[in-house]
Amino acid sequence: MLYAGIEAGGTKFVCAVGNGPANILAETRFPTTSPTETIAQAISFFQEQQVLHGKLHSVGIAAFGPLDLNPASSAFGSITTTPKIPWAHFNIMQAVQQALNVPVILDTDVNGAAFGEWRWGAGQGLECLVYLTIGTGVGGGLLINGKLAHGLVHPEMGHILLPHDRSRDPFAGACPYHGDCLEGLAAGPAMEKRWGKRAETLPADHPAWDLEAEYIAKALVNFICTLSPQRLILGGGVMAQPQLFPMVRLKVNQLLNSYVNSSSLLDKELLEGYIVPPGLGNRSGVLGALALAELAE
Ligand code: ADP
Ligand code: ZN
Questions:
Q1: What is the CA radius of gyration of the chain?
Q2: Which end of the chain lies in a sparser environment, N or C, as judged by fewer CB atoms within 10 Å?
Q3: Is the pLDDT of residue 84 over 90?
Q4: Ligand showing the shortest atom-to-Cα distance for residue 83
Q5: What b/e string do you get for 26-65 counting C-beta neighbours within 10 Å, with b at 16 or more?
């Protein structure tokens, strides 16, 4: 079977054809411009691949959102309230489905990444896992009872509200909707606004990292207490700072204060296997999209 995956990001699209990390036949990436132009680029790539390798079975799309994922809704398959104006209310699922005439499965970028990690990465064999990206935004994907969670709309874990000690951190927060939600306090752009420098230019011993680890740890504690995930996978540009992982693990352990009775949280060595980087590196999204395609009948 030949599957196609689209990681549809706010700044770039990554498209791949194949059937797993060990068998990618072709891959391309290009900047996200207008919906018509960007989708046309993806379609012509897939059409070329079909000439070379035969008919695609299905397409998976892991897209920035928010998305309408309710099959009963007239806007099913659309990007909804995004501030990226030309994409607001664009039906990405329908556009791809009509152009290629194959089944299309759509989910959020982070649910896609969670699914990719579950299928081929650091989440294999688990029933419940969270994938959190900390990059331009903060977003979480959730697999629960072996299935991606949608619910009312879909989880928006990047916008949870956290205790914010303004005497320690007077920064008001950068989320246009909530100010000091998790994304507003901890995404890459929030770090840049607070410290006046891009996160990747802050030295490893800068106080920014202790504060960053604190916000991430508080968020993870909330996810652990509400969802009871068997593993938390942290990706995105900001998590490329290797010093963050041990700091986050230690703070999670301290904040929980031995209350959640699992050796994964109590034992420092096991905690290293509980809060982990993505097994697929920065390929969880595109491979997750491919894994979504496998769900099509
Ligand atoms: P996106 O979220 O758009 O897919 P990234 O995950 O690469 O993209 O996140 C980009 C953000 O991550 C930017 O705000 C950037 O400053 C920050 N970032 C990128 N690389 C690093 C790094 N090595 N260390 C810390 N922050 C980084
Ligand atoms: Zn917010």
A1: 19
A2: C
A3: no
A4: 2
A5: eebeeebeebeebbebbbebbeebbeeeeebbbbbbbbbb
| Percent of the chain's residues with pLDDT above 90 | 98
Going across the sheet that includes 58-63, the strands are: 24-31, 12-18, 3-8, 58-63, 104-108
Give the model confidence (pLDDT) of 265-279 as tens digits: 999 999 999 999 999
Tokens for 51, please give them: 């000439």
Cβ of 241 closer than 6 Å to ligand 1, yes or no, is yes
**Count, residues in the chain:** 297
The per-residue DSSP string of 237-281 comes to GGGG-TTHHHHHHHHHHHHHTT-S--HHHHSHHHHHTTEE--TTG
In order of start, what are the domains of the chain with their CATH numbers? 3-109+282-293 (3.30.420.40), 122-277 (3.30.420.40)
| Ligand 1 probe mutation, 14, 136, 245, most atoms within 8 A of CB | 136
Contacts of 176-179 spanning 24+ positions with Cβ under 8 A: 176/83
CA of 30 to the centre of ligand 2 (A): 28
